[in-house]
Write a structure and sequence with these properties.
- The chain is built from ten helices and seven strands.
- It is an alpha+beta fold.
- The C terminus is likely disordered.
- A seven-stranded mixed sheet has the order 2-4-3-1-5-6-7, sandwiched between helices.
Length: 294
């Protein structure tokens, strides 16, 4: 049996003519590098990762079937070989939409740019989309007078997020609108956002204890101010009564008359755009509005 296996591998090596040179080693390195980059960019930590592992298993079974046939175990070898062929054809049918999407991706003009592009730049583009999702949500909240309270914080050690309902979901307009809908259980609390993720919803924040605070500010504004007093968080709040949009930082509040300036400050808060007049708060206070009584 061992002699048959050795003869089989000897016949394979004779056909391949394995006379390696430095050129061959360089070619193998290039192939390995391409496969590694492709795996890291498009397969790692995705649903396709299990599919790739399954494909390698099928290759292993196919090699074993060839060895079994060479060892005169033809029935067993043909069985495994036929099984591999049948499963391979089935995978093509099952994953036909994914394969079509992949071929379409290969046909894109900026395929090489996406493959070898700057990952930091890709993350920044994703954050810009996060700002867009938030702006679209705030636009609806302000128009419909839907109360909302959103906390932006990278350091979650002093956030109270564990009091609410853990979500750990991507930021989206639809999700924010659902959370703050008046008929949902989570609409009264705050949403905590860190990076591109909604960490939790329905979070209870500490209220400010400032006795000089104007009477016109309700619970949401007091919670936003209180949270900004005890942490480095920036809190976005939409008034249910007036539809006004404001952001609090370091116990101070800035009211926005338009979404353009709001978008600029959100980009600064999320670290997307560094403003020239950046202060300790992390974003520019233009048209500052005092929240305290004169």
């Amino acid at each position: 049996m061992i002699d048959a296996v050795l003869k089989y591998f000897h016949s394979l090596t004779a056909v391949m003519d394995l006379s390696f040179s430095w050129t061959n080693m360089f070619e193998i390195f290039i192939i390995a590098l391409i496969l590694f980059v492709f795996y890291k960019k498009f397969i790692k930590n995705t649903q396709s990762e299990k599919f790739v592992k399954g494909a390698f298993f099928l290759v292993f079974v196919w090699i074993m079937s060839e060895i079994l046939i060479r060892l005169d175990l033809k029935i067993l070898g043909v069985f495994f070989k036929s099984t591999v062929a049948l499963v391979s054809l089935s995978l093509i049918v099952i994953f036909q939409p994914e394969l079509r999407r992949f071929l379409g991706f290969l046909g894109e003009v900026d395929f090489v740019k996406q493959l070898f592009g700057n990952s930091a730049k890709n993350k920044q583009d994703k954050r810009i989309d996060v700002v867009k999702e938030i702006i679209e949500s705030v636009k609806y909240f302000s128009k419909s007078h839907t109360g909302a309270l959103i906390v932006f914080q990278n350091d979650l050690s002093n956030t109270y997020y564990d009091v609410g309902t853990t979500l750990n979901a991507d930021v989206s307009t639809e999700l924010l609108l659902t959370i703050f809908h008046t008929n949902t259980p989570l609409h009264d609390g705050a949403v905590v956002i860190s990076g591109e993720k909604i960490i939790s919803a329905g979070v209870l924040l500490p209220l400010t204890e400032d006795p000089k605070l104007s009477w016109k500010y309700g619970t949401r504004h007091r919670a936003a101010i209180g949270m900004s007093e005890v942490s480095d968080a920036a809190c976005l709040v939409v008034s249910e009564e007036t539809g006004d949009v404001s952001i609090t930082v370091d116990g101070s509040l800035k009211k926005y008359e338009d979404l353009v300036s709001l978008k600029t400050d959100l980009e600064s808060i999320l670290g997307i755009k560094q403003v020239e007049e950046e202060k300790k708060t992390g974003f520019n206070f233009n048209n500052f509005i005092s929240i305290k009584k004169k």
